[in-house]
Amino acid sequence: MRRRLCLLALPLLFSATGCSSPGYFEAVQPSTSQRAVVYLYRPEATTPGLMKPLRYDYPDLQIDGQSIGTLKYNKHRWVELAPGQHSLRITGLSQIAKWEPRDITYPFTVNPGEIKYLKLDVQYKLDEMVLGQPAPRYLIRVIPQRGEEAVYEIRQTQAQR
After folding, report:
1. Whole-angstrom Cα distance, residue 115 to residue 29?
2. Distance of CA 157 to CAs 13, 79, 124, 147, 150, Å?
3. What is the pLDDT of residues 40-60, one digit of tens each?
4. Percentage of the chain lying above the pLDDT 70 cut
5. Which region, left, alpha or beta, applies to residue 74 given φ > 0 means left and ψ of -120 to 50 means alpha?
6. Spatial CA neighbour of 122 closest among 144, 105, 137, 107
7. Is 83 exposed, middle or buried (0-12, 13-18, 19+ CB in 10 A)?
8. Cβ atoms of residues 71 and 61 within 8 Å
C-alpha cells in the first residue's frame, strides 16, 4: 500500500518541479525606431523562508500620471513610450491597487529604439525587524537593470496584462 502511494506521488512531484522551471523570454521590440519599450518587473523576494514580503499586495503603476495597471508578485509587464524623460509612480492611492507602503517616484529617460528594464524590488528589512514588533519593515525600491541581467530574472516571472 505504501509503495503504491509513493508511485502515485511521483508524477505529482515531477509535474510540480516542471512548473518551477524557467520560462522562455524574449523582449518585445519597439514598434518603430522612434519608440522605446520599458519592462517593469517584480521578481520573487530573496528573503529566506516561506513568508514573502507583500506577496498578495500590488501597487498601481503610473507613468507620467497615467495608470498602466498593477504589478503583482512574480509578474512582469511592458509599455511602449515616446523617447524622453518620464516619471514612474508606484502607488497604493488608486482604486485598482492593494498596496499599503508609501508612494515611490522614479524619474527615467528612454532613447529611441531602447529597451529599458526597471525592477521593483520588495524585500523584508531584516536588519530592522525584531521578534514581537507590531508590523514588518520593508525595503522597496526601483532598480534599473542591464538587459543581460534582467532577462534572466524576467524569465522566472509571468507576464501580466
Report:
1. 7
2. 21, 17, 20, 15, 11
3. 999 999 877 678 899 999 999
4. 83
5. left
6. 137
7. middle
8. yes
Q: Which three cell numbers stand for residue 144?
A: 534599473
Residues in a beta bridge with 69: 61
pLDDT at 21: 56
Specify the amino acid at residue 29: Q
- In this prediction, residue 17 has a pLDDT band, given cuts at 50, 70 and 90, of very low
The count of other CB atoms within 10 Å of the CB of residue 60 is 21
Identify the residue with better confidence: 137 or 95. 95
Name the residue with cell 520593508.
Answer: 138
The pLDDT value given to residue 15: 37
- Among candidate residues 142, 140, 102, 147, the one with its CA nearest the CA of residue 124: 140
Are 154 and 25 within 8 A, CB to CB?
yes
